[in-house]
Amino acid sequence: MGGSGLSFFDLWKVLLHYPPAATRQTRDRFRYNFQLRKIVIVRILRQSIINISETGGATKGLAIFFGLALLLAVSTRSWAQAAGDRASATAESASGSTPDDPVLTMFPHSQTARWWVSGQDNVIMQWHRSLSAKYSGPNSFRTVAEHATSNIGTLFTGVQLTRTTEIFMHFEMADGGGISDALGLGGFTDLDVVRNPTLGPVPYIARGMIRQIIPLSDETVEAERGPWYLATKVPVRRIELRFGKMGMNDFFDTNDAGTDSHLQFMNWTVDDNGAYDYAADTRGYTMAMLAEYHDRNWTFRFAEGLMPKIANGIDLQWNLRKARAENFELELRPSVAGKRNTTLRLLTFVNHANMGVYRDAVANYLAGKTTRPIITDHPERTTIKYGFDVNLMQQVSKNARVFSRWGWNEGQHESYAYTEVDQTLQVGGDVAGERWKRKFDKIGVVVVTNAIKKDHQNYLRLGGVGFLLGDGGLNYGRENIFETYYNVHVWRGIYTAFDLQHVNNPGYNRDRGPVLVPSLRFHLDF
Question: What's the domain range around 77?
Answer without folding.
Answer: 1-103
